[in-house]
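User: Please write out a complete single-protein record containing the residue sequence and its fold in C-alpha cell form, without commentary.

AI:
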Amino acid sequence: MIVYEADKKQFLYHSDHDDIENVILASFKATTGRRVNNSEIRSWKESLGYVASVLRDDEIPDAMGIAVELHLPQSSKRIDVTLTGRDATGNKNAIVIELKQWETANATEKDGIVVTYLGKGLREVVHPSYQAWSYASLLEGFNEAVYDGGISIKPCAYLHNYNRDGVIDAAHYEGYTQKAPLFLKGPKEREQLRDFIKRHVKYGDSKQVLYELANGRIRPSKALADALKGLLTAKPEFVLIDDQKEVYESTLASARKASASAPKVVIIEGGPGTGKTVLAINLLVQLTSAGLFGQYVSKNAAPRDVYQSRLVGTITRTKFSSMFSGSGRFFDVEANTYDFLIVDEAHRLNEKSGLYGNLGENQVKELINSSACTVFFIDEDQRVTLSDIGTKTAIRNFAAAKGATIEEYEIASQFRCSGSDGYLAWLDHVLDIRPTANQTLDVSGYEFRVFDSPQALHGAIKAKNTTNKARVVAGYCWPWLSKKDCSASDIVIGDQYRRQWNLDKDGSLWIIAPNSVEQVGCIHTCQGLEVDYIGVIIGPDLIVRDRKIITAPEKRDRHDRSIRGYKNRLKIDPDKIKSEVDLIIKNTYRTLMTRGMKGCYVYCTDDETAEYFRSSISGMQTIEPALTSSSTVN
C-alpha cells in the first residue's frame, strides 16, 4: 500500500503550488482511515521540502516514480520516500530513502544503535542507515516483485539537518553506511545524493515499478525458505516421531486448504517435552517452502531468539527475524493478512498488547483474525502469570466468531525427561497440581536429586555442563539488583551462595550463552526451551508443612510481574485469585522442573520442603502426599 504516489513532475508541482504536507495528509486519511499526529505532519513539510530540492535537477527524469509512505510487507512500518525508474542498462531500480530531522546523535558500542533526542528525551534507536538497509532487506525477502520481478532495491538515509561530525558516520557504523549510504546537511551532501539517484535512475518509468512494488504478492523468497530448511537439516532434534508426524501432516493439509473465505483454527495440545516447538518449527519451514506467507509467534522472546541464533551466517538477521514475531504486534493487522500463523506457547498469550498493556483487544482474537489458518500450540498447565489468558475455550470461542473450522489434536509422546511420562505425573502429584497414581518417583528412568546446599547444586550442574547444556534456574524470590549495579549479587542464600540473575545483555539467549551457567535463569528465559540437566532453586514462595503444599506469593520479589496486581484483585474476588495465584506458583516450578532432558537437580530454601521431595523418591521412606493445599495469600 502506498499513501501518496506521483512522478517527479507532479511531486514538484505539489511542492511548489500546494502545501505538500496537506496533500500527503489527505492521501493518508483516504488510504488508511487513520489520523496523524502533528509531529509527523511537520516532518512531512520539512523533510519533503528537502527532497524536492534534491530532485530539482534536469538529469533526474520527470517520469521517475515517487512514493511517500510505502508500507512494508507484514509490518506497520512505512518507507519515507521511494524513487523508481531504470538505470543506464535498463534495470528496474527502487531507491529507498529514510529521512531524519536529527541534528545530533551519540554513538554506542551496540551494533547499529545510536542515541538521539526523540519526543521528550534521549533514546536508543537504530542507525538511519541500518533502518534503510533493513527495510530494503524486508522487500527483498518478501515482495515477489522484488525477488522474482527483477527490481533492485537501493537504500540510503538523508539527514538534512545533521552536520557531518564523525559520530553518525563513525567507522563503527561503516558496515551499514556502506550498504545504505548516509547523506547529511549541506549543498555538497545534497549533490552527492543527486548523483546517487542519477546513478540508479536514468530513465523514468511512469510509476510502473511503483505499481509492481505495491501489488507484488507478499510471500517469502526461495532464499529465505532454503535458509529455514537448513535449520532442520542441521538439527536432528527437529525430526518428527510418531504422533508428532501424524499431527504435522494433518495440520499441513489444513493450512494448505485454508483461505479467507474458509478459515481454519488448529489447536494442538501437549505437555512439556512432547515436541510442540519441534512441530511448530517443522510447520513453519514446510509452509514457507510451499510459498505460503506466515510467521512463528510466541509471547516469550527467548525461544525466538534461540532459533534465530542458530541461523546466524545463513541469512540476514532482519530477514529471519521477520519470520519470528512476538504476540503483541497483531492488534492493527488487517484481516487474513497471513496465510498461516504458528503460535507457540499459546497459554502465555495476553489480553492486551503494548508496553503499558493498553493496545488491542485480545491477542487470541487478533491472531485468529490476522490469518487464514492459525495454529495454536498449548499446555494450560504452563500458565505462569496472572496475565496469561490463552486457553482452549478462548481459542474455540474466537474461532467460532470468525466462522473458522476448528480442528483439535493432542501429542502425548514424551521426548524430554528421558521420555519419562512417570516423572511428569509424579510432578503433578507432588506439587499438588492434580492427583495421580505416581506418588513416588522411580529415579532409574530419570535422574532426580535433592541437594543440601545451593552451592552443591550449582557445582553439580557446572560439572554436567560439558556441552553447554546444563543451567540453574529459580523462582523469582530475589530482587534483580545487578540490573542497575553489575557488581551486585542477586540470589543470596546463606553466607556462601551469591549469584546473579540471567545476563541482562543476552537475557533471551541466556540458555545458550557462553558462561551463563554461572548465572541463574528465571521462567521467562527458559520456558519453551530445554537443556540436558536443569538445576532448580525452590524459593520461599513454595514450602511444605505437614506434607501440604503452601504457596506464599508475598515471598516473591515485589518486582515480579507474573502476579502483579494480585493484592488489589483479592479485594474483588479473593477465593478466585487465591486459587489462581496458588496454581501459577505451582505451574512455575512444574515448568522449571521439566526443562531437563536427562535430569533435574533441586535445592529447597526450606528444609521441610527438601525432605518432602526426598521422601517422595523411590527407595526413600515414602508417605502419601496430601492432596489438598493451602495458600498464605492475604
Remarks:
- Residues 620-634 have pLDDT under 50 and may be disordered.
- The chain has three domains: 2-215, 222-410, 417-631.
- The two ends are 54 Å apart (CA to CA).
